[in-house]
Amino acid sequence: MQEAIVSMALAGAIIGAAVGGWINDRFGRKKAIVFADTLFFIGSAVMGGAPNPSVLIVGRVFVGLGVGMASMASPLYISEASPTRVRGALVSLNGFLITGGQFLSYLINLAFTKARGTWRWMLGVAAVPALIQIILMSTLPESPRWLFRKGREEEGKAILRKIYSPHEVEAEINTLRESVEMEIRKHRKNQHSDNVENTNCEKSPTIVQLAGFASNRTALLLLFGVVFSLVVLTVVFHQSTTHSPMFSPIETSHFNNTCPDYHTSVNPGAWDCTKCLKASPECGFCASSANKLLPGACLISNVTTKDQCHIEERLWYTRGCPSKFGWLAIVGLALYIIFFSPGMGTVPWVVNSEIYPLRYRGICGGMASTSNWVSNLIVAQSFLSLTQAIGTAWTFMIFIFITVAAIIFVIILVPETKGLPMEEVEKMLERNSLNFKFWQRSSRNGEQVPAQKTESI
């Protein structure tokens, strides 16, 4: 039941991200965000007042739909309704605020642990920010790029004049108009050609540079940090497993409540805390009263045994074993969050909000967001099973291999678009070549120029 309650939000996010692309293109970015907020508000209210687990699951689905839809609509709206020079920075800021919101949610949940109806407040309070955003979105304009695409140029121009300074706005209007007209001409031409264009995520002249600090070079540097933090976690959990406190028959007999699996073990002399916990979910480890790293007792796991262990001021373990390396696991986890949040946690959203043709931006952004939530669901459903089957250290080792594969993918296939004029990005993408020298770009005359010397548009 717990797995179902957790998973339904992710399943809802997959559906929300999948249909969110169509809603974005059909009704606009602003309405898509408001719709996502409405789903989130309904879901939070349903969860807060759920009379049984089934209704709670329904609420989780609604919340998931809203999260999935907002996850691709928000960066898309921000990228299209913000000035070019700060576009990447603002999309990245969105990712930072999501991470900050997650941290804030832990503090809020902590505050409600002592309140009546604890979990109802924890789940129901999420309706408040959704309602606030619904109200605030009414004061914001629609995406000018979407308006241009829909033929509502005058509305788009009015919004652009509020976004850009007087000496920039005309150039932006002309660029956007030419971009949309070129896409429309190309789309009509392909409709009448023998080689009809499929609705895919091709790249076209609508691509604009990524502003701010977001770039694939930034993501690569931070990806290496992710690998380092995962290596730390792998080593720590391996050391904790191979150097866990030994089983003490004397300590165990003190409680007269020995884990039954110990008596049937083939090699009881090799038992330690790790073997005790892996033997059966019904077994727990009571650490030594002198030092938690000294040999302890392997006992039947129940409330009575746990209380007996605590009465003697011992530590009781059922999920992991005592380790002198435990603090390193916290450091490794903190490093992972530090490297992931500004890197792969934000940069892909910037890229996906910029790199697609305007007419396919919503659909392709939805596809990318859907793949993200599918991956989340896979990890959520497999992590505990993997740790039980192969151990925590080997589970993190799998994540290391995946991250290394991501680094190779970025180096070879993801182009660097920061600081590039649109026409140069277009040529680079149309060549569809491998990008091993991702730190360099080709100038118009074919010479290699350093990335930091390329001017912004």
From TrEMBL:
Record's subcellular location: Membrane
Name of the protein: Major facilitator superfamily (MFS) profile domain-containing protein
Originating organism: Flemingia macrophylla
Mode of membrane association: Multi-pass membrane protein
Main location: membrane
Family: Belongs to the major facilitator superfamily. Sugar transporter (TC 2.A.1.1) family.
GO cellular component: membrane
Pfam families named in the record: Sugar_tr
Domain Major facilitator superfamily (MFS) profile stretches: 1-418
Keyword field: Membrane, Transmembrane, Transmembrane helix, Transport
PANTHER family documented for this protein: INOSITOL TRANSPORTER 2-RELATED (PTHR48020:SF38), PROTON MYO-INOSITOL COTRANSPORTER (PTHR48020)
